[in-house]
Amino acid sequence: MRPMITPPTPSSATAEFTAQRTRQAPTTRNCHACLSEGHAPAARFCRDCGSPLPPWQHDA
After folding, report:
1. Coil, strand or helix at 37
2. For residue 50, is it left (φ>0), alpha (ψ between -120 and 50) or beta?
3. For 43-52, what is each residue's pLDDT tens digit?
4. Could you report the average pLDDT of every consecutive run of 10 residues in the chain (60 residues)?
């Protein structure tokens, strides 16, 4: 028996586009304690180890 392949429905496609629009692009900020990358610009602490992050500097 072959597996059934179904095309994406309009509602699932819309949900994916909405999710992509609301996601923030990761930054290149690194945690100096554990070297974790990709923290949000507003993050004050590392999401992996909890250490304070350096201030985010926006590229002008």
Report:
1. strand
2. left
3. 899 999 999 9
4. 71 61 65 90 91 77
pTM, 2 dp: 0.50
Nearest to 29 by CA among 16, 13, 46: 46
Structure tokens at 6: 């179904």
Find the largest Cα–Cα distance for the chain.
Answer: 58
Q: Are 51 and 29 in contact (CB under 8 A)?
A: no
- Of 29, 32, 33, whose CA–CA distance to 43 is shortest? 29
Which residue is it, tokens 């496609």? 13
Q: Alpha-carbon distance 50 to 59, whole Å? A: 25
